[in-house]
Design brief:
Structural class: mainly alpha
Low-confidence stretches: none
Order of helices and strands: HHHH
Strand content: under 5%
Number of strands: 0
Length: 70
């Protein structure tokens, strides 16, 4: 029984702190979510990551098609 308490105590001891942190909305500096999403999308396109995603989807589909039976 000591092992059980010793292994779960560190995990459950910090649970309250993590749940409190998740519900703490006073740290939100910019509440405009649509502008943040637009900025993230523009950065995704500008850095060329969209091409990597597109190539990955095509290569993945080809790999799936070549390795599946039927």
């Amino acid at each position: 029984m000591e092992y059980w308490n010793d292994s779960l105590l560190p995990t459950l001891g910090n649970l309250h702190e993590h749940l409190t942190f998740l519900a703490n909305y006073s740290n939100i500096k910019d509440p405009d979510i649509l502008a943040q999403m637009q900025g993230a999308w523009n950065h995704f396109v500008k850095t060329g990551q969209i091409w990597a995603m597109f190539i990955g989807v095509v290569v993945g589909y080809l790999f799936k098609s070549l390795t599946s039976y039927g």
